[in-house]
Amino acid sequence: MAQYNTITPEVAAQLHAAVGEGRFFLREEVDPNYSHDEMPIYGKRLPEAAVDVETTEEVSAIMKICAANRIPVTCRGAGTGLVGGCVPLAGGLVLCTKRMNKILEYDMDNLVVRLQPGVLLKDLAADAQKHGLMYPPDPGEKTATVGGNISTNAGGMRAVKYGVTRDYVLALTVVLADGRVIELGKSVSKTSSGYSLLHLMIGSEGTLGIITEMTLKLIPNPVCDVSCLVPFRTVDDCIRFVPKIKLAKLDPQSIEFMDADIVTSSAAFTGNPIFPERVKNEDVGASVLVTFTGYDEEELDQKMIRLGEIAKEAGALDVLVVATSANKKSAWAARSSFLTAIEADTKLIDEMDVVVPVDKIPAFLIYIRALGDEVGIRIRNFGHAGDGNLHIYCCSNELEEDEFKRRVKIIMDRAYTKCAELEGQVSGEHSIGHAKMVYLRESVGEDVFDLMRQIKAVFDPDNILNPGKVCDSSVTM
Amino acid sequence: MLNILVCVKQIPDVDLVKMDPETGNLIRTGVPTLTNPLDLNALEAAVQLKERYGGAITLITMGPPMAESTLRECLAVGGDEAVLITGRPFGGADTLSTSYTIVKAAERFGPFDLIFCGKESLDGATGQMASQLAERFDAAQISCCLSIEEVKDGRIRATRALESGRELVEAKLPCLVTVEKDNYYGRLPNLEAYLAAKKAPIVTCTENNIEGLDLQKIGVPGSGTIVPKIYPPELPEPGQMIRTGSVKTDVGRLLELLAEKGTL
């Protein structure tokens, strides 16, 4: 186990001086929220100190101090993670980037934007739109920082058409564990220039370096969009419809899956029953929300007509159109509230974010529902059906926490094994943190896991960057 | 079989409208429009009645030509016929002349058993139209309707929301109903209806083709009110947030401020 030092008054003074007044917090001054992310069930731990940084130079100075004194550093954005990724397991210092929230410049000739890591996703999306541009990655959590999105390679609803965060990162400024500042990548659309450390940094969850500036690719904003809600009697029918949408060459922007339970919870939570629970006098078992983008209405109408044809063949109850701005706002507000709605009516919650081949979704969902019934845990699920990424929530209002954790472990162990059998991966977009490390290890095998550890050691030989995460089991809760 | 009229209005997205601080005018240029959400609740109530008892729904609106998109939106979720009253002479109308114009234009599609309105529009928010229309249609009125229990033998029974409870009321037809949103959340259109509504004919009424229209009762001449000035409400001074991150510094600053104000 790595040996770390505590923050002495001398080190505290150096850290304080590095950021200036009002941005260094010691012990009881540290915001208690810095002890956890959105999944406190994976454990909380307060750091000894925290800094709110504003510049690359400050981050570099902080890292030099921490490297010299062997102080562990956990980087944190908005704290909206779901795998305990920003929990400072080894104590030490939390370095928060939320004040690095400036969009620095747009290059309208090359359609790129340069920004700081603490910019919120919703702010980047809105600002890009003002420039007639779109930042395609669209994770459900709009109050996450873009830096956090890059650190976890977040995906989101539009991944079906546009890909994930990784596909839009052109360049990063990164502060290494010893305080050196490096530039990775350039504003170019292709590269064949040695190992891509840029792509190694993306999704590395603050374990290899601290991202302090990003250059991201944007695209022209599509002129129009429309969504169709396609309800089915059963989950199985609904999921079997998903590959048919893709095979029909309709090129949807997103295909979101929602079962009846989550629709009911969301409607109760938001007071917004836009997704019907009954259609044509029949109960809806599950629905998909399919979104198309395009450059004129006629193009979208043709896509909807084709969707209607294949939906009918697939036994859909109907095809409902979300076309007005008010309905779009309501539909996406309801969709974006799914997790919050689950959290609001659940005392104990745990989740998995598996990704399986699209045609294996029904098999996985049927398995997990039966498993939930067998073990006595309520299962809620929704997800990005178009790319096989499922968000499965284990919920309970009745069980004591220890019993809940015992039962959930049974579910997780068996579900990840099933996921591996179906050729899936542990996480589609939420990452590993410390909560999913054991499953990552099982999934990738010892050789690959060991390579990951060796890579980590190259970047961070003293293991001071976010210890206990991804592939480092030397520090635990 | 019920003959139902639903009055709808296209409004600017009120979240996006700003006021010109110099002139007090509302800046509507470039602001997206939407169908008054409360009208969609009224339409849903009407559609549910049509599904239950059979009949037809005529939609009517007054506004610029682009208000046609509101009518098409409403046709897609259950309207059968749509009437757009448009033309420069109607501009600047207050509720008095608007209600007169709507009733005159609707005459040729009537008589109506039921007339539905949203309880108010989110832009003007006078809440006056429904009562004026009821008067002009010589209809009873049920306001704040939570649910319609039954329409039978020329009468309607409905539950109204009161400040301290509910009441069940009955009225003779014709009756005008304003609807609360609680039980009548607007539905999504299905694809076939959505596509059909895009191509559906819209009846356009102008000052030239509304029978018996008195031009002195429409637009500005027919309005009983004038708006001499629009101005934003005076807001209290915004509060000041002290949050340096250090409790000690925060408290010190607070004490300084209180001392400056003479409170301490």
CATH architecture of the largest domain in chain A: 2-Layer Sandwich
Distance between the termini of chain A: 13 Å
The biggest chain-chain interface is:
A-B, 27 and 23 residues
Number of domains of chain A: 4
Mean pLDDT score of chain A: 93
Helix and strand arrangement:
The complex is a heterodimer of chains A (477) and B (264).
Chain A lengths: L8 H11 L4 E3 L22 E4 L3 H14 L3 E4 L16 E4 L6 E5 L4 E4 L5 H10 L2 E2 L11 H7 L6 H4 L6 E7 L5 E5 L11 H5 L8 E8 L1 E2 L3 E9 L2 H13 L6 E6 H11 L7 E2 L2 E2 L2 E9 L2 H17 L6 E3 L2 H12 L1 H7 L3 E5 L8 H15 L2 E7 L4 E8 L4 H21 L15 H8 L1 H14 L18
Parallel strand pairs in A: 2-4, 3-4
Antiparallel strand pairs in A: 1-2, 5-6, 6-10, 7-11, 8-9, 8-10, 12-16, 12-17, 13-16, 13-19, 14-15, 18-20, 19-20
Helix pairs in contact in A: 1-2, 8-11, 12-13, 14-15
Chain B lengths: L1 E6 L2 E3 L5 E2 L6 E2 L5 E3 L1 H17 L1 E8 L5 H9 L4 E5 L9 H12 L7 E5 L10 H9 L2 E13 L2 E8 L2 E8 L2 E5 L11 H9 L3 E3 L41 H14 L4
Parallel strand pairs in B: 1-6, 1-8, 6-7, 7-13, 8-12, 9-12
Antiparallel strand pairs in B: 2-5, 3-4, 9-10, 10-11
Helix pairs in contact in B: 2-5, 3-4
Describe the structure.
The complex is a heterodimer of chains A (477) and B (264). With 477 residues, chain A is an alpha+beta fold. Chain A has four domains: 9-99, 2-Layer Sandwich (Uridine Diphospho-n-acetylenolpyruvylglucosamine Reductase, domain 2); 103-220, Uridine Diphospho-n-acetylenolpyruvylglucosamine Reductase, domain 3; 224-339, 2-Layer Sandwich (Alpha-Beta Plaits), CATH 3.30.70; 346-440, Alpha-Beta Plaits (2-Layer Sandwich), CATH 3.30.70.2740. Chain A has 15 helices and 20 strands. A seven-stranded antiparallel sheet of chain A has the order 17-12-16-13-19-20-18, sandwiched between helices. A five-stranded antiparallel sheet of chain A has the order 5-6-10-8-9. The radius of gyration of chain A is 23 Å and the shape is globular. The mean pLDDT of chain A is 93. Chain B is α/β, with parallel strands linked by helices and 264 residues long. Chain B folds into two domains: 2-217, 3-Layer(aba) Sandwich (Rossmann fold); 234-264. Chain B is 27% helix and 27% strand. Chain B has six helices and 13 strands. In chain B, a hairpin with a 2-residue loop joins strand 10 (155-162) and strand 11. Chain B is globular.
